[in-house]
Design goal:
Blueprint (H helix, E strand, L loop, with lengths): L1 E10 L3 E10 L2 E6 L9 E5 L4 E4 L1 E6 L19 H5 L3 E6 L10 H14 L2 E6 L13 H7 L3 E8 L9 H18 L4 E6 L7 H8 L8 E4 L5 H12 L4 E4 L8 H10 L7 E4 L5 E5 L5 E6 L4 H11 L5 H4 L5 H6 L16 E4 L5 E6 L2 E5 L2 E2 L6
Parallel strand pairs: 1-4, 1-5, 6-7, 7-8, 8-9, 9-10, 10-11, 12-13
Antiparallel strand pairs: 1-2, 2-3, 5-16, 14-15, 16-17, 17-18, 18-19
């Protein structure tokens, strides 16, 4: 059945003003000042007094759990649909972390399919921290071409848990990601976990500046671990690259302040994204480095940091929300995501004026109604 969202204050994320939005077949069919249809034809959703944005995209999240670096008890469980909906997330990109032994790509694929069936959009990366890559089929190239949910590959550098891949090894993986993406009609990214070692992003800058590799296929994340690393990330962004700031996990300063600093240095907001690193295994340590307790990285900090950018940083709503809508959609080459426009997926978040999330629609289906999230595939 068709739906009409009435009287919404729309941020697409650019400000459109008060609009009505017609939704059908999981897509946005029309946006106009006033859309009228018979109630027998369309369900009316009154959004009076609400700010309506695109559904939020989390491009780095551990859907099937992560952890394990502090032994088996530090392993985290799967994420549920309701956890994602409660923080406005309607599109996710899942991945493995350090552990490619007790966690499987097959399990991750099954989780992405399950989330799709429950109502949101889900994608994944092949492999994990190590080199050579771990894949489901014969190669990264095959995974990119023949597995629908795979839109890139993961690898780690500058981390004691990484395989310390060389420039030539990274070029080989990039070639498979890029060519596989071309054949399959996907953007194709090599999503690169950055640790806190002194080598930082040196190898990535060499790929771009010395080998002139196309920067759009290189997707570094956790760029805010240290000030020195973040300064290199700023250089990378100024070369045209996309940099991903983790809102959870290790960081030298609050993520919203990192964004403000990068903007001061001349980086475009269009070249930055937020991601949660949600569900990663974390440990709280005492002053002597002993573990006090284990916990899982929260998945709701992307939205909280965007709100801080608006309230504390003075950034316009239309700019701040790019970090979790249009920019990750651009990075992942999801041409139908991240924007409220005709032909795009019908993914929406509804907020009260104080940015309290009240309703979520994903692919045209209402998954949160008046602050109550659905736990399965609901209309």
């Amino acid at each position: 059945m068709l739906k009409i969202i009435k009287n919404a204050e729309v941020y697409a994320p650019e400000y459109l003003g008060k609009k009505d939005i017609l939704v059908g077949a999981e897509k946005i069919l029309a946006i106009d000042d006033c859309i009228e249809l018979n109630s027998k034809v369309a369900t009316i959703i009154d959004a009076s007094g609400k700010l309506v944005t695109p559904g939020l995209i989390d491009q780095h999240i551990h859907l099937t759990g992560a952890g394990g670096k502090h032994a088996f008890a530090s392993m985290t469980p799967e994420i549920s649909l309701s956890e994602l909906v409660e923080c406005g997330t309607t599109t996710v990109m899942g991945m493995l972390g350090t552990d490619g032994a007790t966690r499987s790509l097959q399990g991750l694929y099954a989780k992405t399919k399950a989330l799709e069936q429950e109502g949101i959009s889900a994608y994944m990366l092949t492999s994990y921290f190590a080199y050579p890559p771990m894949t489901m089929l014969e190669s990264v190239l095959d995974d990119m071409i023949f597995i629908d949910k795979v839109i890139g590959c993961k690898i780690a550098i500058s981390d004691e848990r990484s395989s310390f891949p060389t420039v030539n090894e990274l070029l080989k993986v990039l070639r498979e990601v890029h060519v596989g993406g071309l054949i399959a009609g996907k953007g194709g990214i090599l999503h690169i976990h950055l640790g806190a070692l002194a080598s930082r992003m040196d190898v990535l800058l060499e790929l771009v500046k010395v080998h002139h590799y196309p920067i759009r296929n290189i997707s570094p994340t956790h760029v805010g671990r240290t000030k020195e690393l973040f300064d290199q990330a700023i250089e990378f962004a100024k070369l045209g690259g996309m940099i991903d700031i983790s809102t959870g996990g290790t960081k030298y300063d609050q993520p919203y302040k990192q964004v403000l600093y990068a903007l001061e240095q001349g980086v475009s907001i269009d070249n930055m994204t937020f991601s949660s690193d949600g569900n990663a295994g974390m440990a709280k340590k005492d002053e002597f480095g002993n573990i006090k307790y284990l916990y899982k990285a929260p998945i709701d900090l992307n939205l909280k940091q965007v709100i801080l950018l608006i309230k504390e940083g003075g950034l316009p709503i239309s700019e701040a929300f790019k970090l979790i809508t249009t920019s990750p959609a651009k990075n992942l080459s999801l041409k139908h995501k991240g924007k409220i426009d005709v032909g795009y997926d019908a993914d929406f978040c509804f907020f009260d004026p104080d940015f309290t999330l009240t309703d979520v629609i994903a692919r045209g289906k209402r998954l949160m109604n008046n602050r109550k999230a659905a736990t399965g595939n609901y209309e």
